[in-house]
Amino acid sequence: DAGITQSPRHKVTETGTPVTLRCHQTENHRYMYWYRQDPGHGLRLIHYSYGVKDTDKGEVSDGYSVSRSKTEDFLLTLESATSSQTSVYFCAINDPFTSTDTQYFGPGTRLTVL
Amino acid sequence: AQSVTQLGSHVSVSEGALVLLRCNYSSSVPPYLFWYVQYPNQGLQLLLKYTTGATLVKGINGFEAEFKKSETSFHLTKPSAHMSDAAEYFCAVSEGGYLGATNKLIFGTGTLLAVQP
């Protein structure tokens, strides 16, 4: 998985609790992305980062926030988890100077909100 | 806006048969096109991509895809299916560009390939 790890790999939480997912890369890639995968929807972009402290929204950003204080770490936070946020979350990375637009994915985090 | 349509959310083939997974895209600029494969409980792995140049692109595991601009298609094929090909396959499109720039990927909804013995 191209030097990308995600933690935790599985999490069960209750509605209303905060949740933070972590993506860590060892490739020194500039761009990092968070997606969610749901049946019938494919992958949908939540947020992405184009550098330390530089982030932007994707198509399904409501209810999520992100932070990137170091090149290697990109955090996704659900401030108050809802059942509609039950999903599999994937992190991806991209280096536009070596492989334009090609993204490499982590192993995913399965989140269940009860 | 760009979009991707994958025809057939489920495709079943017999082992040894031809695999054909369909992908059509919509883009107002010359696209970059990608196929990714996802095995159960794993992340997405790049199979192949088209950026510029030769329209027939060969990827890993014996897969190939052909970019047909006139048909706005990028179908994935493999001459002979193997049991290990059972997985979900995603087509994706981006706006492409020059080295150093990057664009978001737009994904299709996926096609689950089953291979029957």
Structural account:
The complex is a heterodimer of chains A (114) and B (117). Chain A is an all-beta fold. Helices cover 0% and strands 57% of the residues of chain A. Chain A contains no helices and eleven strands. In chain A, strands 2, 4, 5, 6, 9, 10 and 11 form a seven-stranded mixed sheet that branches. Chain A has a four-stranded antiparallel sheet with strand order 1-3-8-7, with no helix packed on it. In chain A, a hairpin with a 3-residue loop joins strand 4 (31-38) and strand 5 (42-51). The N and C termini of chain A lie far apart (30 Å). The mean pLDDT of chain B is 91. Chain B has strands at 3-7, 10-14, 19-26, 32-38, 44-50, 56-58, 64-68, 73-78, 87-94, 106-107, 111-116. Helices cover 0% and strands 53% of the residues of chain B. With 117 residues, chain B is mainly beta. The N and C termini of chain B lie far apart (41 Å). In chain B, the strands form two sheets. In chain B, strands 2, 4, 5, 9, 10 and 11 form a six-stranded mixed sheet that branches. Chain B has a five-stranded antiparallel sheet with strand order 1-3-8-7-6, with no helix packed on it. In chain B, a hairpin with a 5-residue loop joins strand 4 and strand 5. Chains A and B meet through strand 5, strand 9 and strand 10 of A and strand 4 and strand 5 of B.
